[in-house]
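Build the 3D complex.
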Amino acid sequence: MSRERARRRAHRANAGGTSPVLPLLANPYAPIEILSADQVEAIHEASLRILEDLGMDIWSDEALDILAAAGAEVDRPGRHVRLDRGLVTEAIAKAPAEFTLHARNPARNVRMGGNFINFGLVGGPAHATDLDRGRRPGTYADACDLIRLAQALDVLHIIGGAPVAPIDLPVATRHLDTAYAVITLTDRVWHASALGRQRVEDAVAMLAIARGLDREAVTESPGLVAVVNANSPLRYDGAMLDGAIAVVRAGQGLIVTPFTLAGAMSPVTIAGALAQQNAEALAGIALAQIVRPGAPVVYGGFTSNVDMKSGAPAFGTPEYAKAVLAGGQLARRYRLPYRSSNVNACNVVDAQAAYESEMSLWATVMGHCNYVLHAAGWLEGGLTASFEKMVVDAEMLRMMAAFLKPLEVSEETLAFDAMREVGPGGHFFGAAHTLARYETAFYSPLLSDWRNFETWEEAGAQTATMRANGIWKAMLAAYQPPPIDPGIDEALKDYVARRKREGGIGEAA
Amino acid sequence: MSRERARRRAHRANAGGTSPVLPLLANPYAPIEILSADQVEAIHEASLRILEDLGMDIWSDEALDILAAAGAEVDRPGRHVRLDRGLVTEAIAKAPAEFTLHARNPARNVRMGGNFINFGLVGGPAHATDLDRGRRPGTYADACDLIRLAQALDVLHIIGGAPVAPIDLPVATRHLDTAYAVITLTDRVWHASALGRQRVEDAVAMLAIARGLDREAVTESPGLVAVVNANSPLRYDGAMLDGAIAVVRAGQGLIVTPFTLAGAMSPVTIAGALAQQNAEALAGIALAQIVRPGAPVVYGGFTSNVDMKSGAPAFGTPEYAKAVLAGGQLARRYRLPYRSSNVNACNVVDAQAAYESEMSLWATVMGHCNYVLHAAGWLEGGLTASFEKMVVDAEMLRMMAAFLKPLEVSEETLAFDAMREVGPGGHFFGAAHTLARYETAFYSPLLSDWRNFETWEEAGAQTATMRANGIWKAMLAAYQPPPIDPGIDEALKDYVARRKREGGIGEAA
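Done.
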């Protein structure tokens, strides 16, 4: 489907009043700027000084070779690298400001950069939870159900590889199963695990099969992304970097995200945490651009703070919101797409989960984040994926999508004639102007209950979380997988079977 | 206490890490602008056309006299007025851009205008609710407890007259009881009811007693506000306008707030609803400025939408957020202080209540609202005041207050030496830089629970709403009224007793 047809389809979906989601969602508002231009420069300068004077531990031989060849000061026995500012700034300048990620359904392609916003499914939790079954270790069945929900909710542009870790599957081959699940249960752009080269190679091979392309064609048209995290402070682990290099060589999108929890893995001051975040992100992005100039990369921010009473990580805090906005300014300074997250530290889907998520979500949107990862389903600081939170988050995302639709001011919408028709003290329910527009005038909720108290009480007095439970079960019951060519499906199955016979990633797992 | 001392006190309070609230809370960020300059002008022009060509019903003889004398085209038998644009724009230009409201404790004075933000207690619901006693008609005891909580939570700058209607008290005199409660249980700026002249006169008399001033002095230093609502579309009721005129004559703050629910009391399009809101607000503000040029007034916005399936009002919607932002642009076009609200349409304190409130709250803050009314306690579209929602809202307001504290970027906060000290792979818990700052580095929550799942579960697995229940009860148990001069207290009691003997506002109630 062409982009134009996709737009028309989205317009028709909007016209129904139920789905405010566009395949391409763009932010019409100017970003909130929390830093002055001087402050942005001060953080930039501090991070270059960190890379020059303190340097980073780089625990990948291949990365050390690459950086040494590029002129970095490499201490091989110490696996430590100092990067001078010229090397860093020249390298990051080669990154594209914007790129397209290609889904197997072209109507689901996403643009990364500019003022586009893409929402992504939660990725990585060890536990799954819902009101019926409680909190338990994640399984492949849970992962598949969360992936199905992500497809059905129709507000998530990108699907994480595994919304919950399928711990019932062997570590050496579970990436094959989850890639197969994401490819066949959705038609979206998805995530590969960057933990080691082989997982990336498998993901890229399966991406090529899914899109009916050869390896070279897939390298030229990225269709997946992978996250590389710094092991903050100032360290990149070996498998992570090896995986990141493989992602870049394969032409796929690399998201470089330090995890700078202020007070623990970074300084207790937000400015210091941002300087460290920026240093670590620039180092990873520079490496990518040295490996393959012009490689599609995303500047990732994940600065939050700990609770200084207990050391527990906190998310969706005022400090988090500030760091998200500042991170956007840093990313824009380098003309790089920007990734952040919809987070909370709550143990249950309640008012706290919602207000912490909204603090995050508003900051990501108004910080002109291009990719909001963990946008739906994240609970408990990312330790748990929640089925009910999926629905609560989807409602918040749909509301945000509706909020981003520009307000139309025209002779018709100013409605002078309707006011004349109705007159003082009248009402607009029956006005011609209302009747022509009422079906599509307003956002129509997925979850919110606006019935009066008595009606709501008679119907069982359900909280939003209880209603969310009913909604996800109904959606799973009605779920239909997106169509896939049977030959492609067969080839994917063959690939997975062969690689399982070969032992997957083997002992290295 | 001087403003400077108040600032220092607030700084010390912040330094404790528990209260992020400043007596004067200011917004360091540029507002979100949803309308282009041309769109602002189009709405402005449309509203002037409404007032010129359609006019408004004005159901107050006194207001009709005043407007006729000022040159408006008055249809006396029809109680209808057309206002030409010259009259309107000249009158509103006389309003001050900023003014001070004086509390009986000068440390609690508030600035209305500029980039100051003030939060106000919920006002007006008919019902009270909490987890122990459920939903019931409001009483004076409930009103007093909510007022005590507002004082204790220390994040509300302004107290509504009655956070819940005390329906156990006679209508003719209950305004005297609530004014006495607000004056003695808090030390803040408060609301009078503008429903009829006599209620305003009583409030102003009690304000003068409370502050030890004569009537003239109180007229020159406003210490209360009152809201006048249009009976939208395009009508002002008699008692409301008579009360508004009394507020203005007494030199107190008048908040002019049309209630333009798109699709019901205003056009189904947000632009049309805004044009009507603007017309109604300008008419009320113009009347105030004709009565007393330079009178302190606030531009009120309350444009939301109905659920077009049921006709039920919806709050905290994407449309509401857009209208709040646009309303701020209109208020700033006229250099007027701006009032909006923290709203939701939820029947219970759950995730929906929180996400609808956050949609509202972010829009009020980023729309540079100067007065966020109903900032704490509002539930169920304003029909119910909730004790648990008071605490949930207070947490959201405190988080927002912390978010508004500027991010400090300096050599010290950039923390290069701390990163050198800790080095790659280390942690910052024990760093000197951390130890010097950890107590005050981050927002410290009132309600949010950041314990890990196991600890939280063992402690009873309480939701935020359940914890809020414990918090408000503990706060009420520990509540201490702010000191008041016994002579003033006696004089207030005498005034209330005398006015009760006189029958309060009498049969007119």
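Chain A is about 45% helix and 15% strand.
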